[in-house]
Amino acid sequence: MKTRLLGVAALALLAACSNTDQNASATGGGAGTIRPGSQEDLVANVGDRVFFDFDSSVIRADQRAVLQRQAEWMGRFSDTRVQVEGHADERGTREYNLALGQRRANAARDGLVASGVNGARITTISYGKDRPAALGSDESAWAQNRRAVTVVQ
C-alpha cells in the first residue's frame, strides 16, 4: 500500500515539474532561454570542444576554427573565465593519459591565447581517461574521448 501511494505521489510531482517547465519556456524563462555568456551559450553557439588525433596534442587543422570562435566569444564576454579540460581515450596507462590530457588542455589554451584571449582568464586541468564522453572500446568512442573541453567558470 505504501509503495503504491509513493508511486502516485512521484507521478504527481513529475507532472507538476513538467507543467512548470512548459510554462517557463512559454514565458521566456527556464529551460527555453540561453543566457548570453553561459556554458549553454558557448555550447549552442560556438562549440565547447576540440578533438585530437591518437596520441597527439597538436590542434588539428579542422579544429582551429572552433578555437577561433571560442576566442571571439570570449572577446564578447570579457569578464568570463574558463577552464580547459584535457581528456584522453582509454588506451594507455593512467599516468600517461593524465600527461597527454594536460598537453591537450595546454594546446587548446595556447590556441586561445594566440587568438587574443588573456591567459589569466584560462586555467587548465587534465582528467586523462577518467571522464569519457563516450563509452566503448572502439574508434568511434575513442575519437570522442580525445578532446579538450572549454568550461565556463
UniProtKB/TrEMBL annotation:
Membrane topology: Lipid-anchor
InterPro entries xref list: Bact_OuterMem_StrucFunc (IPR050330), OMP_bac (IPR006664), OmpA-like (IPR006665), OMPA-like_CS (IPR006690), OmpA-like_sf (IPR036737), Pal (IPR039001), Pal_lipo_C (IPR014169)
Residues annotated as signal peptide: 1-23
Domain annotation OmpA-like: ranges: 39-153
One GO-annotated biological process of the protein: cell division
Domain of life of the native organism: Bacteria
Matches recorded under PROSITE patterns: OMPA_1 (PS01068), OMPA_2 (PS51123), PROKAR_LIPOPROTEIN (PS51257)
UniProt keywords, alphabetically: Cell cycle, Cell division, Cell outer membrane, Lipoprotein, Membrane, Palmitate, Signal
Localization annotation: Cell outer membrane
GO cellular component terms given for this protein: cell outer membrane
Subunit structure: The Tol-Pal system is composed of five core proteins: the inner membrane proteins TolA, TolQ and TolR, the periplasmic protein TolB and the outer membrane protein Pal. They form a network linking the inner and outer membranes and the peptidoglycan layer.
Role according to the record: Part of the Tol-Pal system, which plays a role in outer membrane invagination during cell division and is important for maintaining outer membrane integrity.
Family under the similarity heading: Belongs to the Pal lipoprotein family.
PANTHER family the UniProt entry points to: LIPOPROTEIN YIAD-RELATED (PTHR30329:SF21), STATOR ELEMENT OF FLAGELLAR MOTOR COMPLEX (PTHR30329)
Protein name: Peptidoglycan-associated lipoprotein
Organism, as annotated: Neoroseomonas marina
The gene coding this protein: pal
